[in-house]
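During the first year of the project, the team set up a workflow for recording each protein of interest as an amino acid sequence followed immediately by a discrete structure-token representation. This format lets reviewers and collaborators read both layers of information side by side without switching files. As required by the reporting guidelines, we include two representative entries from the current panel. The first entry is reproduced here exactly as it appears in our internal archive.
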Amino acid sequence: MSRKHPRKGRLGRIEMEILEGLTFGDIFIGALFSARSTKRMHEIARKRAKKRYLDQLALERLVKTRLVNAKGEILSINASGLELFKKTSLVKQMLSTKVWDRKWRVVIFDIPQSMAPLRWEIRGLLKRAGFRMLQQSVWIFPHECKELTALISQDSRIKGRVLYGVFETIEGDKEMRRAFGLV
């Protein structure tokens, strides 16, 4: 039985890319800003390190939630990950309207505690779509989204538990307009 030993003194293409991403960029930025702006260099280096860290955490979450398979250093999306990706892409595509018609779309759902995982799934979908919670189980969005509610309502477990409405006005909507960047 042969054992794989790490190569000493040699780096492969992937290792070089990782090291370059970790060091060269920060060193290059440091050289560009030199002594005149070491504070700025440290800010940029911190931002780059934070982004790498957050990317790593996101990847670990994808593996932990079994949306991505990890076999050693090889990653691949699995069927459930692909399905969620398609659903999320579809939601973003459906909600691509940018011009506000001065109407609010409201999604209201009433799902019992016994179906809590389903409730969390719907909340997550609404959050990813850009909805904001107006009140408990009442979510608001400024653009057309009938397709989204139809997508949510397709689940047979929630038939009749999700309501969709369009409101001309909502009392005190100034805060919501600000939250959606409509002011």
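The second entry, processed by the same pipeline in the following quarter, appears below.
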Amino acid sequence: MRTAAPGDTVAIHYIGTLDNGRIFDSTVDRGEPLVFTIGAGEVFAALEREVVGMAAGQAKNIVITAAEAYGPRLQENIITVGRESFPAGDLVVGRRVQIEFGGGAERVMVITEVTEATVTLDGNHPLAGLDLTFALKFDRIV
């Protein structure tokens, strides 16, 4: 049976969990496998490495460290701005907002704190700083 190699387009099913057991993503929920090309940088390099050599129907559990996934949580990705920077309306903790920075760069950030004078925004990926565990099942080489 042929196994996955760099350059192959493959389909895998997975359940991704955190150290506390919480599921953060799953192809089971979508009903369709994740399809990507090994070596094309479409998924974490650590995931690509683990899929190389797998054959249809094979399953395994892997851990991708925070450093190999979304990186550490960085304090410089958290900013506090004056509330007057936002249009009047509801500023709700947990809401995602699109922020435009100088030079036209835009970034989605999460409101983490609102006071009468300020709004604190976190631009870290929600899974930054966390190790990710994947229960993988290799579906096929596409």
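For the second entry, the following points were noted during internal review. The beta strands are 9-17, 23-26, 34-37, 59-64, 78-82, 96-100, 106-114, 118-122, 132-141. Helices lie at 27-30, 45-51. Both points are flagged for discussion at the upcoming steering committee meeting.
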